[in-house]
Amino acid sequence: MNCSLARALGAVGDWWTLLIVRDAMFGVKRFSDFQQSLGIARNILSARLERLVAADILSRQGTAARPLYELTAKGQALLPALVALMQWGDAWEVNGAPPVLVTDAAGRKVKPLEVRSPSGAVINGATVQFSPGPGADRRTRAFFKALQAAKDD
Amino acid sequence: MNCSLARALGAVGDWWTLLIVRDAMFGVKRFSDFQQSLGIARNILSARLERLVAADILSRQGTAARPLYELTAKGQALLPALVALMQWGDAWEVNGAPPVLVTDAAGRKVKPLEVRSPSGAVINGATVQFSPGPGADRRTRAFFKALQAAKDD
To answer: ipTM value of the model?
Structure first.
C-alpha cells in the first residue's frame, strides 16, 4: 500500500536514525559529537549520516577533513514529527519527568501537538477519518473499499 | 542519553511497526487484514502485534480463535506523531499527491501540525530550543553543557 507514512519511514530509513535527526536539532554538527551522544560504532554512524545526506535531510558542510552535518529545510521540517514523538514519550513512558524540554527561544514550553480540523476542533483516534487521496494507487483504493465493506458488515 | 524520543522509539520497537499502528488507526482489527495490508510474514506480524500488546499500544479483544486488535488510549495518543510523519511524507516524498487523506468526520482535511509556543507563535527548526528537563540524568545534563560550550566556542 502506498502511503506517506511508509514513504517517510523509508526516507529516514531506520527508527534509530531519528536520533541523529534529534541530535542535529539539538545543534550537534560534528561526527565525534554524534558518536558521543549516540554511542554507536563509527561505521554505522557513518552509513546513517550518508543516508541522511542522500535523502536530503542533512547536508554536509565544512571541510572534507572536518565535515559538519546540518539539517536541510527538509530535515528541519521533521520537527513536528519529532516533537510529537517526544511528547508521547513524555506522557506515556517517563512518568511525567521529561528528560528534555522543548521550548521557544524565551524558554517557554511548547504546546502539545494536536490534530485539528479546519475549524480548530481537536481530532482524536476515535474521530479521525482516513480516505484515499489523489495519489492513491489501485491497491490503496481497494484497501479502503474492503475496510468500509468490513465495517458495514 | 535518556530522552523521550528514544523511549518512544523503544516502546514502538521498530520503524515498520508504526505501519501496524497506522492500520489500526485506519480501522484494521483482524490478523488477516493486517497481513494483507502489510504483506509481511505471519510470524513477523505475530511478533510485532505481541510487542504492541505488551507495550499497551494495542489490546487483544475478541476470542482466542478470532482475536481483534484495538488501539488502547496510549496507542490512540500516537495520532499526532503519525499524522506529523504522514504530512512530512506528503510534503517531501510524494510530489504533492497524498495517497491517503486525513480528515475530520465531515471529510475536511486536518490542519498541518505545527510546534507552537504558549502564545501561539510557530516554532521551527531554527528557533526551537532544547534543555535538560526534570527527568534528565547526569549524562543528558553533561551533553547539553558540552553542546552549549561548543556553541560559545
So the answer is: 0.94
